Amino acid sequence: MISVDQLVVSFGGFELLKKISFLVTPKDRIGLAGKNGAGKSTLLKIIAGQQEPSEGSVVVPKDIRVGYLPQHMAVADSHTVFEETRKAFDEILQIKNQIDHINHQIATREDYESDEYMNLITQVTELNDRYQLVGGGNFEAEIEQTLMGLGFKRNDFTRATSEFSGGWRMRIELAKILLQKPDVFLLDEPTNHLDIESIQWLEEFLRNYSGAVVLVSHDRAFLDAVTNRTIEISLGKIYDYKANYTKYLELRQEHRETQLAAYKNQQKLIEDTEKFIERFRYKATKAVQVQSRSKMLEKLDRIEIDEEDNSKLNIRFQPPERSGTIVVDCKHLTKKYGDLLVLDDIHLMIERGEKVAFVGKNGEGKTTLARIILNELEYEGGLKIGHNVKIGYFAQDQAQRLDENLSVLETIDQIAVGDVRTKIRDILGAFMFSGEDVEKKVKVLSGGERSRLAMIRLMLEPVNFLVLDEPTNHLDMRSKEILKQALASYEGTVLVVSHDREFLDGMANCIYEFKDRKIKQHLGGIYDFLQRKKMESMKELERKSPSNRPAEKKEKVLVNDNQLSYGERKEINKNISRLEKQIEKFEEKITSLESELEAYDKKMANPSNLEDHRIFEEYDQLKAQLEKVMSEWETNQEEYEVLKQQKTW
């Protein structure tokens, strides 16, 4: 269907793509893989006809329609959402205008027997047939279905596009491309501005689509769900795997091991040949053999190994100081923007060491609540940040907040203190800023490079509560995986706003769903949450009895409040009140014990006190007492949560 033949892309003597060739066939679902800067977006632009290659060709048959969604595009804001999306049906709208025009002529003419009148009847009949054939009868229903699938509400349809953020404008452009139903989709990071529910809708759409798909994405779960073929771009060459992303990684590792063995064998051959040439270079009896082996080396197709495979992005957040047990405590929190109610009577508690994720549709208040916790926004109700909590924040636009006139090295040198200053270049090297890269100005860095630089700044701050708003945007697969591992081993508390399921899986152990100005806690991982959501949407929860639940997903069976008697509800409320008082006492005791331990820490930091062994004994007794109180607090807290769920389920 589309033929890429001997494609070369050069920039100032550097070859980004080196004579690559492949075919896109009608049922292909291709994921383009490779590190940032490998040439994935450039390849999409060339296939879309928006950029010319240095050499080679891309052949797209005339009857093949291509739909291209770039990462960034200029958009016009002069229509409503529905009007802008209707532009996807230009052909249908033109036919409809022709039909309306001819019908008006027919209605106003009286020469019913004339040839001109009969020609008008024939034309309008043919146009009506064409109108139905291209989907004119239900295109407005398709627009509505697509917009709602991408997260818009019906009352958004009549709003001006200028009222929406750049991310929502990109959704409108995506909707237009989906509705045009091209033969080939070219999608460059289509999930960047989508929430989890919209990503799942797009997955389903593309999986069932009859045409071909070529896409770039750093969302591993999305790639696995959609693709059946992976083309890796590495060192200007491509490697074609008939597999989705996860399977491709396995096959790539096998290929890598084979390639490495071949590389080592070739290096040994080259070394032995060069030694032979050097040894017998000036012996006349060996002249023919020396010349032969010299020519062999010149003609040898040398195996290259991707340098990126050997580099590591080692992120290790500094061990944080211990915070209080309760890190964030929200009660009856409400947030309005004028008359617009965003959050209504929110209750939220985050404890030390928890890894919490905020999920839900865009615009439901996830970032708003994060910024309230950071004391960046005004609100109504109660919010308490716990004892000794030090917050580090990574915003969605953190990369854009960097000073563009500073170099990479200067950006980190600004905040580095103490012994860290002697290791700045090592740290930058771990984040793949090596050699001359550290002298680059921020303004010339890519989005991924800026995000990594912003993450270094955060890493160097001694904090015990990380608030991360979409930290994986613009990070490639390897960087995301290493960041995920670093956060999983981080000893402090983490709150992350993200739509990346693969990133959240195994990292977050508590999910807060934002919906209809409320939040709902879901204990467990992201896929447990999504599975429960799917069951709810299919109305399976009501049909399934506890005995039918999978053995590996054992959960507490909660009683429906509607089935409780008055006496039972009264008893639950009584126990909840009792537990609230006990929990409050335990928390006061924990705070007191932690303060005492801090005082002992200061004593032990003074060398003159180290000879007094009683200090260590008293310190150990306090620690044991604290652990016991915390254990009792946890038991009461678990019982409290169960009773609260029984009451509100």
Question: How would you summarize the topology of this molecule?
Answer:
Elements: E1 2-11, E2 14-24, E3 29-33, H1 40-47, E4 55-59, E5 66-69, H2 81-86, H3 90-108, H4 115-133, H5 139-149, H6 166-180, E6 184-188, H7 196-207, E7 212-216, H8 220-226, E8 229-234, E9 237-241, H9 245-280, H10 287-299, E10 326-337, E11 340-351, E12 355-360, H11 366-373, E13 380-385, E14 391-394, H12 408-413, H13 424-430, H14 447-459, E15 465-469, H15 477-489, E16 493-497, H16 501-504, E17 510-515, E18 518-523, H17 526-537, H18 566-605, H19 613-648
Parallel strand pairs: 3-7, 3-8, 5-6, 6-7, 12-16, 12-17, 14-15, 15-16
Antiparallel strand pairs: 1-2, 1-4, 8-9, 10-11, 10-13, 17-18
Helix pairs in contact: 3-4, 5-6, 9-10, 18-19
Keywords: ATP-binding, Coiled coil, Nucleotide-binding, Repeat
GO molecular function, one term: ATP binding
InterPro entries: AAA+_ATPase, ABC_tran_Xtn, ABC_transporter-like_ATP-bd, ABC_transporter-like_CS, ABCF_ATPase, P-loop_NTPase
Attribute tags:
Rossmann fold; 649 residues; 6-stranded mixed beta sheet; 44% helix; single chain; flat
Summarize the structure.
44% of the residues lie in helices and 18% in strands. It contains 19 helices and 18 strands. The longest helix has 40 residues, at 566-605.
CATH homolog superfamily of the domain at 326-553: P-loop containing nucleotide triphosphate hydrolases
| Overall 3D shape | flat
CATH architecture of the domain at 326-553: 3-Layer(aba) Sandwich
Count of distinct strands: 18
Helix proportion of residues, in percent?
Answer: 40-55%
Low-confidence stretches: 308-313, 538-563
CATH class of the domain at 326-553: Alpha Beta
Q: What is the gyration radius calculated from CA atoms?
A: 31 Å
Largest sheet: 6 strands, mixed
Relative strand content? 15-25%
Span of the ends, CA to CA? 54 Å
GO molecular function, one term: ATP hydrolysis activity
Domain ABC transporter: 2-260, 328-541
Protein name: Probable ATP-binding protein YbiT
Pfam families: ABC_tran (PF00005), ABC_tran_Xtn (PF12848)
